[in-house]
Amino acid sequence: MAIPETVSRSHSDITLDLSTGNKVGDHSRDDSLPSISSATLESEKAPAIWRLEDTPNIGPASLPILYQFLDFDTHIPSPVSYSRKSDAPIPPEPPSLSAFTSPFSWSSVHKSCILVISCVGTFLAAFTSGAYSPSVQQMASEWHVSTVAVLVGVTTFTTGFGLAPMVLAPFSEANGRYPVFLWSGLLFAFCQASCAYTKSLAGFLVARFFVGVSSSVFSTNVGGVLSDIYHAPDRNAPMAYFCAFALAGTGSGSVVGGFVGQALGWRWIFWLQVIFDGLLLLVMAAWFPETRGSVLLRRKAQALNRWYEELEKNGYPGLLSTQSPTDANNSTSTPVSTPGTSSVVYRIRWRAPLDGDSPTLPTLDAPPEKPNFVELMRVSLIRPFYLLFTEPVVFWFSAWISFSWAVLYLNLASIPIVFRSVYGFTPAQCGAVFSGIVIGAIISTPLFILQERVAKRRGWLPDSPEARLYFVCPAALFMPVGIFIFAWTSRETVSWAVPAVAVGISTIGIYGIYLATFNYLADTYHCYASSAIAAQSCCRNLLGGVFPLVIQRMYGTMGYGGAGSLLGGIALLLSAVPWVLVVWGERIRARSIFAQGMVVLEKREH
Fold it and tell me: What residue ranges are annotated as transmembrane (predicted)?
């Protein structure tokens, strides 16, 4: 259906054709008086001329409203001028729409600044999980409890970290990323201060839960930000940096936490994070823009609609359109016919389409400006688990990355145990061993960025989600290899450097799994990707929080070699996941209702 054709508007002194700005009748008293800029919809036909003197009892504010969907490609027509009489009110100036451009069209410098701020947030969220382990012994001594009781703080943290995105992710999609970042940042800093100040273990564990809730935004929401500003073909490098900062933050937290805890005490580990988190909050409040495209469109529509309302309130026309009466069914307003035509005159109001809307047809019924939050929450809580238990791709990727994340948290818990008991390391020295995680992340980042660029340049990769898995097939084997080396070299007769290097080797494998999971699920499930990623994120963090509680029992019962061999064997079996998908992934996706629906939708969009 064509966009409705435009009509013209006149004062009693002057009539203007809104599409051309040409004067139809000129009885102006003062051409030098201020003018107003307005906008009109383009038409496939010549516009009709509507004169207010022909319908003297009808003003602009009395016309029925026609709602038109707005997207970033919608042409907001060129302004035309309206002269006013000397006794007429000064018309409002048009709004600036420069703040409402598509995030995909932002400059590379602008996107890079957003990427840097986002990755720093991810780094600090990961930092708080890594900084916890070096202080466990000190907290256990101060509160006269076992180290296992203190390690419950890891579980409460990961529980909040895993469950919060189920609520915060859909909230950010409906209301924007910026307010979620801002309020979560405030809660993040406050709860870190609570951890530093609290005098009881119970209060500390509650504060740790809310640290997990608030910091989860700086991990899961960052993935949404990258999807907001980068198209899929351009997303690999930003996602690689995101993964690098997540893993490097975990390792850095343990390194810094070890030295700070030994020098200043465990409470200063948390006060230091309060300072870092507060600085991040100030930077985000001042310089981080809203990146959610649907929210920017909604604000653009609201700005235009407010302007039209102000114009009409002062007796000027806003944006007017004619529609054939057959296109204006079920109207609850009284239509105004233009003289000598069968058309009806409407005031235009813009609406940003919600997910699932068809942004093609105008409507007389006001579409909702925001999705129904209760329904959004219901879907957001149910769909991830539906995908988890009905989609083989989501299930096996969730199992794979959950185990790899559990191995990462096992490293956080086992390094102090092993290096103190076997090598007699101090807390600061144990913290230094965690630098292996940082080094592994640093090595992985350029490798995973360059491999895709080289493969694309040489035409080695097919145009399918499975292309994301080619490099990770061999790279994922680094995780079981690192686990085996760590398990069987953690003894007095072997240099401490060997198990320390093994930590870095396993990190390279974890990095590849993390990056491949995010990229593959995003490419396969498109608009359902957030639900698929939320499912694996919940599993990943819940399992990661449980493993540190059992590691001492495993080591005590099975020994370092036996426990490590069991974990390495499981990791080796799960390393088959990308190989299976490379070979049979297309057939598996063909049997998926969700994945095939995304293929059909993508074809329609292109």
Answer: 113-132, 144-168, 180-199, 205-227, 239-262, 268-289, 385-410, 422-449, 469-488, 494-516, 563-584
